[in-house]
Design brief:
With about 90 residues, the protein is an alpha+beta fold. The protein is built from 2 helices and 5 strands. A hairpin with a 2-residue loop joins strand 2 and strand 3. The radius of gyration is 12 Å and the shape is globular.
Length: about 90
C-alpha cells in the first residue's frame, strides 16, 4: 500500500499526488483496450520519494479494475512495467 493518496482526474486524463503544495502527475490515454501512460511528471524537489512509482501503480491498478491492459509511452512507466511483470 502506498503512503501517497493517488487522485484520479478522468476529466484531465491524469492521476495526481499532491505533496508539500506541489502536484506530481501521470497523464494517460485510453485506446484499443489499453491505458497508455504518456508522461509521468514529478517536481524536482519531490523526486526520490517513490511518488512516480505510486502514480504509475495507481494508474495501472485502475486500468485493471476497468479491464484495460497496461501500455507505456512514458519511459518511466515502461521501466516500471518491466520491474513489475505481474501487471503484464
Amino acid at each position: 500500500m502506498s503512503k501517497y493518496q493517488v487522485i484520479h482526474k478522468p476529466e484531465d486524463r491524469r492521476f495526481e499526488i499532491w505533496e508539500n503544495g506541489a502536484v506530481a502527475y501521470a497523464e494517460y490515454y485510453v485506446h484499443d483496450g489499453a491505458l497508455d501512460i504518456l508522461h509521468t511528471i514529478v517536481p524536482f524537489h519531490l523526486e526520490g520519494r517513490g511518488i512516480g512509482s505510486a502514480l504509475v501503480k495507481g494508474a495501472y491498478d485502475w486500468a485493471r479494475e476497468e479491464g484495460l491492459e497496461p501500455a507505456a509511452t512514458c519511459r518511466f512507466a515502461y521501466l516500471w512495467l518491466r520491474r513489475h511483470p505481474e501487471y503484464n
